[in-house]
Specification:
203 residues, mainly alpha, Four Helix Bundle (Hemerythrin (Met), subunit A), 7 helices
Length: 203
């Protein structure tokens, strides 16, 4: 893949910047009482997630990469997911210590990836890490949709109460625990697989 130094205003970089800008937008919308604002918030999160898929596809297809993109892309991904998890803690749906573990793992690994890029020692993302990101995104989006359905009462009061009971039940904690364990595992696996890259001297 060729690094393009002529311009940082590549399509992937623009999409990454858009993803970062959308983070506070979807958070504010989901905090609104009006269910229609929440619906827009869900759509905004979906759009932000899709930009992550497309900017990677575009960069690989056309060989358009920059150091700025290598820095911003993983940062944008972690900001999006971390903001959603912390929002759910604020709403009372997730346990803080699990979210802290996920956020700390993602911050550490993202910082190491950025360091590797700066030092010209890029690390290829493993399939485990990709599955981790997929699991986090699906989990976040499902909770988001359930919150929307609960608040909007599209299917009646009984269904709304059932959804609320599930969101506040221990089942959600078990699912989050599985996501947390998998996330931490991928972080440890990353460190074990790449520690030599960070310890070796620069040629």
């Amino acid at each position: 893949m060729k690094e393009q130094n002529e311009s940082y205003l590549t399509i992937p970089n623009q999409l990454t910047a858009l993803r970062i800008l959308l983070v506070p937008v979807f958070v504010v919308l989901l905090l609104q009482v009006d269910p229609y604002y929440k619906l827009v918030g869900v759509i905004v999160f979906a759009v932000a997630s899709l930009t992550d898929l497309y900017d990677g596809y575009h960069a690989r297809k056309y060989g358009v990469t920059t150091r700025l993109g290598a820095f911003l892309d993983p940062l944008a991904d972690k900001l999006l997911i971390s903001a959603a998890f912390l929002l759910y803690v604020w709403m009372g749906y997730l346990v803080l210590w699990m979210v802290v573990l996920v956020v700390v793992r993602d911050v550490v690994v993202t910082a190491l990836r950025i360091y590797a890029e700066v030092k010209d020692r890029p690390v290829v993302t493993s399939m485990e890490a990709k599955y981790k990101t997929l699991a986090q995104n699906v989990f976040v989006y499902v909770i988001m949709v359930l919150i929307l359905l609960k608040e909007a009462s599209f299917f009646g009061k009984d269904v709304s109460l059932t959804i609320n009971s599930f969101l506040l039940s221990g089942y959600l904690d078990y699912i989050m625990l599985a996501v947390t364990v998998f996330t931490v595992y991928t972080g440890i696996s990353y460190l074990v697989s790449n520690w030599r890259i960070y310890l070796q001297s620069r040629p």
